[in-house]
């Protein structure tokens, strides 16, 4: 049975696409047949983060409209053979998505034997975002330790509880996970950034992972290689841990403490 | 934190604590609204207009909330602070 997981946040720029790419890749690296779908119609970016932007021929909207079949539109990842990307359309608007259309694509993907379907949601709470979360079995609520992001995440939790298919049909609720990104332990210690506990207190959902703010994330997007491949980096390792937790492994949280610094940087900062 | 930071006062302004308090209040408020029916804001406005016909009062002196006790019982609570008579 395919598991549909939405990566959502409400607020833009908190790391949904970075997280979708890293987690989707992580699942595929563990041998699970995985597809990542870009729901951000008109503002496609997952292709860039995944490094397959030059290989887009047909897209998600083409499949929904019957202008191409699913196989033609799926881009097979060059690094892992169990990973596929379904890009968003760059030219249409978000009204091109319909519940029936999305439902059909998800059914077909499940029939193709996909175990995980990752839906990379657009920002906001409009059609695109609702479509991305509607069919979800699980939700990864991506949040920055910052007031507007936390508030928007709470709003999205409200949507999951009322607007999702599981809510409408009175099924078991969408399983919610908190993914805290751009975490800076040093600033938390100084008292000028919300801590993991603070955010968890407010949102009251189980934590999937804490991704430290890291130069590795920008480096990864520059080169179109999901940051989880950078296994030397703190962010790469934190995503790998999050993937483990997602498939049910117990993992203690890491990178919550500031790095020990040498004398030089202690004296001069940086 | 660099050497020079030790001279700055860091203890007194803990902005994360302020952030948490503000969030706690606004999130609780919004959750409460979310659980209420769609007509609640309009009804609140109508109630306010009726009161205003008789008493001079500000919007923030009227508090209307709907508490869902259980499946069968919801309580509409109306809390009005009347201005001082003087």
UniProtKB/TrEMBL annotation, chain A:
<comment type="function">
    <text>ATPase required for the correct placement of the division site. Cell division inhibitors MinC and MinD act in concert to form an inhibitor capable of blocking formation of the polar Z ring septums. Rapidly oscillates between the poles of the cell to destabilize FtsZ filaments that have formed before they mature into polar Z rings.</text>
</comment>
<dbReference type="GO" id="GO:0000917">
    <property type="term" value="P:division septum assembly"/>
</dbReference>
<keyword id="KW-0132">Cell division</keyword>
<dbReference type="InterPro" id="IPR002586">
    <property type="entry name" value="CobQ/CobB/MinD/ParA_Nub-bd_dom"/>
</dbReference>
<protein>
    <recommendedName>
        <fullName>Septum site-determining protein MinD</fullName>
    </recommendedName>
</protein>
<dbReference type="GO" id="GO:0005829">
    <property type="term" value="C:cytosol"/>
</dbReference>
<dbReference type="GO" id="GO:0009898">
    <property type="term" value="C:cytoplasmic side of plasma membrane"/>
</dbReference>
<keyword id="KW-0131">Cell cycle</keyword>
<dbReference type="InterPro" id="IPR050625">
    <property type="entry name" value="ParA/MinD_ATPase"/>
</dbReference>
<dbReference type="InterPro" id="IPR027417">
    <property type="entry name" value="P-loop_NTPase"/>
</dbReference>
<dbReference type="GO" id="GO:0051782">
    <property type="term" value="P:negative regulation of cell division"/>
</dbReference>
<comment type="similarity">
    <text>Belongs to the ParA family. MinD subfamily.</text>
</comment>
<dbReference type="GO" id="GO:0016887">
    <property type="term" value="F:ATP hydrolysis activity"/>
</dbReference>
<feature type="domain" description="CobQ/CobB/MinD/ParA nucleotide binding">
    <location>
        <begin position="5"/>
        <end position="227"/>
    </location>
</feature>
<dbReference type="InterPro" id="IPR025501">
    <property type="entry name" value="MinD_FleN"/>
</dbReference>
<comment type="subunit">
    <text>Interacts with MinC and FtsZ.</text>
</comment>
<keyword id="KW-0547">Nucleotide-binding</keyword>
<dbReference type="InterPro" id="IPR010223">
    <property type="entry name" value="MinD"/>
</dbReference>
<keyword id="KW-0717">Septation</keyword>
<feature type="binding site">
    <location>
        <begin position="11"/>
        <end position="18"/>
    </location>
    <ligand>
        <name>ATP</name>
    </ligand>
</feature>
<keyword id="KW-0067">ATP-binding</keyword>
<dbReference type="Pfam" id="PF01656">
    <property type="entry name" value="CbiA"/>
</dbReference>
TrEMBL record, chain B:
<dbReference type="GO" id="GO:0042802">
    <property type="term" value="F:identical protein binding"/>
</dbReference>
<comment type="function">
    <text>Prevents the cell division inhibition by proteins MinC and MinD at internal division sites while permitting inhibition at polar sites. This ensures cell division at the proper site by restricting the formation of a division septum at the midpoint of the long axis of the cell.</text>
</comment>
<comment type="similarity">
    <text>Belongs to the MinE family.</text>
</comment>
<dbReference type="InterPro" id="IPR036707">
    <property type="entry name" value="MinE_sf"/>
</dbReference>
<dbReference type="Pfam" id="PF03776">
    <property type="entry name" value="MinE"/>
</dbReference>
<keyword id="KW-0131">Cell cycle</keyword>
<dbReference type="InterPro" id="IPR005527">
    <property type="entry name" value="MinE"/>
</dbReference>
<dbReference type="GO" id="GO:0032955">
    <property type="term" value="P:regulation of division septum assembly"/>
</dbReference>
<keyword id="KW-0132">Cell division</keyword>
<dbReference type="GO" id="GO:0051301">
    <property type="term" value="P:cell division"/>
</dbReference>
<protein>
    <recommendedName>
        <fullName>Cell division topological specificity factor</fullName>
    </recommendedName>
</protein>
């Amino acid at each position: 049975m395919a598991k549909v997981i939405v990566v959502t946040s409400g607020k833009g720029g908190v790391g949904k696409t970075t997280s979708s790419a890293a987690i989707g890749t992580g699942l595929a690296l563990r041998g699970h047949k995985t597809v990542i779908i870009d729901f951000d119609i008109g503002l496609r970016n997952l292709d860039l983060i995944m490094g397959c932007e030059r290989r887009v021929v047909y897209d998600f909207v083409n499949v929904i409209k019957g202008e191409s079949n699913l196989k033609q539109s799926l881009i097979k990842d060059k690094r892992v053979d169990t990973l596929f990307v379904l890009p968003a359309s760059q030219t249409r608007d978000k009204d091109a998505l319909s519940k029936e259309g999305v439902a059909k694509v998800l059914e077909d993907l499940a029939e193709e034997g996909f175990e995980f379907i990752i839906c990379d949601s657009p920002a906001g709470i409009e059609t695109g975002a609702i479509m991305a979360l509607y069919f979800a079995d699980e939700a990864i609520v991506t949040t920055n330790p910052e007031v507007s992001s936390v508030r928007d995440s709470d709003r999205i939790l409200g949507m999951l509880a009322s607007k999702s298919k599981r809510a409408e049909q009175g099924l078991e609720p969408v399983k919610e996970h908190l993914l805290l990104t751009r975490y800076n332990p040093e600033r938390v210690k100084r008292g000028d950034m919300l801590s993991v506990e603070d955010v968890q207190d407010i949102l009251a959902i189980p934590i999937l992972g804490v991704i430290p703010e890291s130069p590795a994330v920008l480096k990864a997007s520059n080169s179109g290689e999901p940051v989880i491949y950078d296994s030397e980096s703190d962010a790469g390792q934190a995503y790998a841990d999050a993937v483990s937790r997602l498939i049910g492994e117990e993992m203690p949280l890491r990178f919550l403490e500031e790095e020990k610094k040498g004398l030089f940087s202690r004296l001069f900062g940086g | 934190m660099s050497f020079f930071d030790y001279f700055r006062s860091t203890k007194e302004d803990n902005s994360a604590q302020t952030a948490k308090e503000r969030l706690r209040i606004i999130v609780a408020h919004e959750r409460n609204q979310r659980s209420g029916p769609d007509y609640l804001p309009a009804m609140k406005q109508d109630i306010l207009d009726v009161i205003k016909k008789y008493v001079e009062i500000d919007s923030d002196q009227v508090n209307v909330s709907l508490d869902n006790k259980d499946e069968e019982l919801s309580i509409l609570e109306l809390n009005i602070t009347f201005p001082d008579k003087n």
